[in-house]
Task: structure prediction
Amino acid sequence: MEEMNSINRELKKQQLRKQIVQNPAQMRPLPEGYHEEEGEVGQSPPSLRRSVTVGGIILLIAAVITGGVIYWRTYHQYAEYSISWEADLRTGEDGARTEGSFTGYVNFGENIIKYTKDGASYIDGKGKTIWVQAYEMKSPVVAVNGDYIAIADQQGNSIYICDKNGCQGVATTLLPILKVSVSAKGLAAVILEDAKSNYITMFQKNGEPLDITIKVRLSGNGYPLDFCLSPDGTQMICSYIYLKQGMLDCRVVFYNFSEIGKNESPIRLVGGFDEDFAGSMVPRVHFLNDEYSFACSDKGLSFFSSKNLASPELLTQAVVESEIQSLFYSDGYVGMVVMNGAGEAPYRMEIYRPDGELVLKKEFNFPYQNISIDGDQILLWNDNSLQIYNLSGVEKFHGTFDFVISRVMAGRFANSYRIVSPQKITEITLQK
Result:
């Protein structure tokens, strides 16, 4: 009996199922690969799609803002300035007024070295004197490389080797000093003058002499016009004037003081370039970094690579037909100003990367007296006016001041600058 009841109940269930009719609107086929317990395959849930859309909009807005900032920084021109702070340079550590007949300034990292015949002082970005080094020199000349500066008495016999903490050593020579160079590690070198010969001598940062001396004569290697140590102190570039068939000519040579140089020649000579400078004068040579260096002649710029330490290579030459008015450089760029002929823009600046690649060629008419490059900015100034360009050739600022300008360098911020005058140092901030 119980079994019959079960059968009847099952028959009633089947009859009930047959009476159910589906809504045609709900009878769409399921997408291929769809599983109710897993969701739709290949399609993002609505919440995820909304997140992706919002993220894309945020990235687009960020890109637009970044582009706007870059465009503004590149092309915006400032018309005014405000003074952030001033510091009196005539006051010494003891509060006394100190003024001399000669005062020079040179960039030292992000700060400044002030040097006179009586001593040197290291001044930070807010005009505070960090250290003072006293000495007596008739004609002080300086060389800077990285964190070291060498101050030498031209035609004298003393060299002070200093870093950001103060004097690290004093070297003394027997012969008069003509020129000085220093490496970023404190190694110093000087050209010494004798009646018949010249000597290149080197010293450790504590002032102790090194057993490295190069003797040169006008009738031999030549008379040294300029020289420069590489930042690591293992290389040196030098320009010589020498006699060739009774006529004066010029050459550029490279020395290497590591084991590589010792293996190449007794005087550590690893490279020489004569024909490339025939008929020209080379008054300036300089190492930009341990690999790249340049020479400035009366015909233009020559760029060298020391990637092969045993055989430096002349990469390229930027030849100019006009007279070179100024040479300026930093660790990352080399620039020169040449006469551009008569007209509204009598000057032309050309700026190159260390490998000789041209970055900027710009004509201008500002009657400058000094020019330098600090970071990606070109600074030109005369007694009381300042003009600033960026590496895109955009004039960022042109202003006049009521005090004498001795030197200009970049300040603490992108639109701030420190202006050094004989009496004070002033930081300005460009506005509008």
In short: The longest strand covers residues 235-244. The longest helix spans residues 46-75.
